[in-house]
């Protein structure tokens, strides 16, 4: 490969990106940009590497460079929006997704991600609207059905939420998020044993998933199975102690009943000792 060929460097970067070798891909994109600083595709691809590496601020910088050169590059607007979403800058995320959608109104990914921003902002009706727009474009996308189910549950429209989550699982039966969220909904309507079954099914798929383990611990604690509940709750919190915080659970859209029962578990002296150890 002749070093002056910027397209060759970008093509090499694309191959490395596909292989998940993001640092080497960034090197290739930087080589392309040394030759052609206004190569917007290279800036965009470099931004995607940063996004995958969790370097969201650097990703935003790269996407902004691409957009300065090509303002109608809707993929870059969408990727910039995703960086904002992951940084918790939801209003800025919505702005970026709207820019993408103004250019390409049938862009499924932007509608779905905009809906996620609305979820985190508590704008559940607007979230449902965005997910419905996404599903008009791609009705077979399990993520959008699952996200719609979360929004409906937050509005206490539980039967509709169950229908949306079950639709998600018709499309992808092992979709952990929807199985888990189905458990959250079932708990709120008093179907505790069914909720536990859903959470156990998630753990069978992914035994490192903290949320369903903690939820089972909460459910068992509420049933009076104290020893069993503490064992599983401690195992969950040892994986990630940030879950031992009611504000975190609210952010994850746990319902009022499950939150109230979680508060009781988190007040248990054994759990409080475990959580205090994390702060030392």
UniProtKB/TrEMBL annotation:
Keyword Repeat attached: yes
TPR repeat windows: 6-39, 40-73, 74-107, 108-141, 142-175, 176-209
Keyword tRNA-binding among UniProt keywords: no
Keywords in alphabetical order: Repeat, TPR repeat
Name by which UniProt lists this protein: Tetratricopeptide repeat protein
SMART domains, A to Z: TPR
Annotated Pfam families: TPR_1 (PF00515), TPR_11 (PF13414)
UniProt xrefs under InterPro entries: TPR-like_helical_dom_sf, TPR_rpt, Ycf3/AcsC/BcsC/TPR_MFPF
């Amino acid at each position: 490969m002749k070093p002056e060929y910027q397209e060759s460097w970008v093509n090499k970067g694309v191959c490395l990106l596909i292989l998940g070798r993001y640092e080497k891909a960034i090197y290739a994109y930087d080589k392309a940009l040394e030759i052609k600083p206004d190569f917007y595709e290279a800036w965009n691809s470099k931004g995607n590497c940063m996004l995958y590496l969790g370097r969201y601020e650097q990703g935003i910088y790269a996407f902004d460079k691409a957009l300065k050169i090509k303002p109608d590059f809707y993929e870059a607007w969408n990727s910039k929006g995703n960086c904002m979403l992951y940084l918790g800058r939801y209003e800025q995320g919505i702005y970026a997704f709207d820019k993408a959608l103004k250019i390409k109104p049938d862009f499924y990914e932007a509608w779905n991600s905009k809906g996620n921003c609305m979820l985190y902002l508590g704008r559940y009706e607007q979230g449902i609207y965005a997910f419905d727009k996404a599903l008009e474009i791609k009705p077979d996308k399990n993520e959008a059905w699952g996200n719609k189910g979360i929004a409906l549950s937050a509005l206490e429209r539980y039967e509709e939420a169950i229908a949306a989550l079950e639709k998600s699982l018709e499309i992808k039966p092992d979709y952990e998020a929807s199985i888990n969220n189905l458990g959250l909904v079932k708990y709120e309507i008093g179907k505790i044993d069914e909720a536990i079954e859903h959470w156990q099914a998630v753990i069978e798929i992914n035994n490192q998933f903290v949320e369903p383990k903690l939820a089972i611990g909460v459910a068992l604690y509420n049933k009076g199975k104290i020893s069993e509940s503490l064992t599983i709750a401690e195992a969950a919190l040892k994986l990630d102690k940030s879950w031992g915080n009611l504000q975190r659970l609210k952010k994850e859209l746990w319902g009022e009943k499950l939150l109230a029962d979680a508060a009781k578990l988190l007040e248990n002296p054994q759990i409080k000792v475990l959580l205090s150890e994390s702060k030392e």
